[in-house]
Amino acid sequence: MTELANALTPPPAKSQQQRAPISAEERAKRKAAADFAFGSVRLEGFILGDEEKALFERYYVEGELTLQEFIDAGLALAEDFKRQDEEEAAAMQKLIAERVWAIRQGHASNLIEGLDIGETEFEAMLERAREPISNEEFTRRGLAILHEKVRRINPEYNPDT
Known about the structure:
The protein is an all-alpha fold. It has helices at 2-8, 24-43, 50-61, 67-112, 119-129, 135-153. The chain has two domains: 2-11 and 18-65, no CATH class; 85-153, no CATH class. It is built from six helices and no strands.
């Protein structure tokens, strides 16, 4: 692994104005080494996104960035990913809270009208509502459960007809 890392590390870059252009042959060698490295980490279960690959290629293959510029850009990219993850997690928590609230409100309304689905079914529905899935997936799963229950009562039931 150290040999591969050494092979992928270009010599220290000069300032942007002093860098010699990279020949097409050298660029092709670097591109092949980068593609090999991308494949190697993919086999280990780590999938690089297009942004990470492009950043590495700008640094290693094209020689456009100094090591420090590459590190700084990589850290900024990591911060962006962290912020996006936090925003997505917050949005999912809000969606779950709204879904649970709507189910509780619907259940209360049904009880007032004398339509009780039973405590077990209500708790199972709330448990499904707390799963970190989209509302579309929640609805799809709920309909699948409903269709299965109807099929148990009426084996000839087909929701597609």
